Amino acid sequence: MNGDFIDALHEIEKEKGISKDIIFDALESALISSYKKNFNASQNVEVEMDRTTGKVKVLALKEVVDIVENEYLEIDLDDAKEIDDRFQIGDIIKIEITPKDFGRIAAQTAKQVVIQRIRDAERDVIYDDFINRENEIITGLVQRISKNNVYVDLGKTEGILPPSEQMEGEEYNQGDRLKLLISEVKKTTKGPQIILSRSHPNLVKRLFELEVPEINDGIVEIYSISREAGSRTKISVFSKDPNVDPLGSCVGFKGSRVKVIVDELKGEKIDIVIWSKDIGEFIANSLSPSKVLNVIVDEKEKSAIVVVPDYQLSLAIGKEGQNARLAAKLTNWKIDIKSESQYNQDIE
C-alpha cells in the first residue's frame, strides 16, 4: 500500500460517493481473513491501516496469563512485562506480526475489496433511483428473451418483464422500443431487480397522463380503470372545470390523443366513459358503447339491474361477457343486464 492507493480512494470518494472509512473498514476485515487463510488461522489478529500513508500492520491479540496453554492466543506475564511492565494477568496485548510479503496480499485484497465496494455502491445508487420511481412509466429497449422472460435495457440497468406482466398476444423482439410501467423494485444479493409491466392498469393511466395535458395539469381526473390487457380497457374520467369536456380532452382532435395510446398498446380497444356521482348514470355510462334504457340500483347490495334495448343485449354484455365484466370492475358494482322484453316479463 502506498500514497497512490490513498489518492485513488480520495477519487473514488469524490466520483462514486463511497466514504473512504467504509472502504478502510471493509479492507481491514478482508485483510484479517486473508492473513488467517495464508498464514495462521489459529491466531486472533487485528489489522490496522494508516489512513494517511496506507501502511498495513498485522497485530496478534494475546491474553496475559500465568501459564501459557495456547501460544497463539496467550502470553505469560514475564514476557508481557518485558514489553511493558504495566501489564497484568487478564490484559490483552497487541504484538506486531506483519509477515514480510503481506504487502503483496494486501494490495490484491485491496483491489478486490475496492471493486466490490464500487459495485455495491453503484447497485445502491440504481436501487435508490428506481425505488422512488415505482408506478412510473419508463422507455426501454428489448435486449433478449429467455424462458419467456423479456429483459429490457433501461440505460443504467436491466429490467425484467415476466410472463405474468406481459400483454396477451403481444410479441417481443430484440430491439423493440417499449413504454413500460415500473411495477416493483426488489433488493437482491445480485443487485436491484426491476420488475416491469405491460399489463397493469396503471400503464394506461400513465399513458393518458403523458398524452393529455388536462390530466397532467389536474383539470381532468381519472376516477377508475378496468383492463384486460391486450384486448380492452375501460377508463372513467371527470372534469373539475365545467368548461372542459373530459371526454374530448382524452380523445383529442380527431382521436389523435387516444390513437397514440392505442398504438402503444398494439391496438388494444379503449372505452372512455364519464364518471358521475349518480351511480345509476355512472353504470349506464360504463356499459358504453351500448345504450341503456334504465338502471335499477340496490344501494345496500351494491348491485344494479340494467335494462337495454333487445337488439343491444349482446353489445351490452360483450364478447364472452367482456363489456359487462369490465363495467362491473370499473364501477365496483355487481351488474345484471336484461333486455327490455326480459325485464318486462319479470315484472309481469
UniProtKB/TrEMBL annotation:
GO terms for cellular component: cytosol. One of its GO terms (molecular function) is RNA binding. It is found in: Cytoplasm. PROSITE patterns: KH_TYPE_1, S1. GO terms for biological process: DNA-templated transcription termination; transcription antitermination. Residues 135-199 form the S1 motif domain. Keywords: Cytoplasm, RNA-binding, Transcription, Transcription antitermination, Transcription regulation, Transcription termination. Its main location: cytoplasm. Belongs to the NusA family. Monomer. Binds directly to the core enzyme of the DNA-dependent RNA polymerase and to nascent RNA. PANTHER family: TRANSCRIPTION TERMINATION FACTOR NUSA, TRANSCRIPTION TERMINATION_ANTITERMINATION PROTEIN NUSA. Participates in both transcription termination and antitermination. This is Transcription termination/antitermination protein NusA. It comes from Tissierella praeacuta DSM 18095.
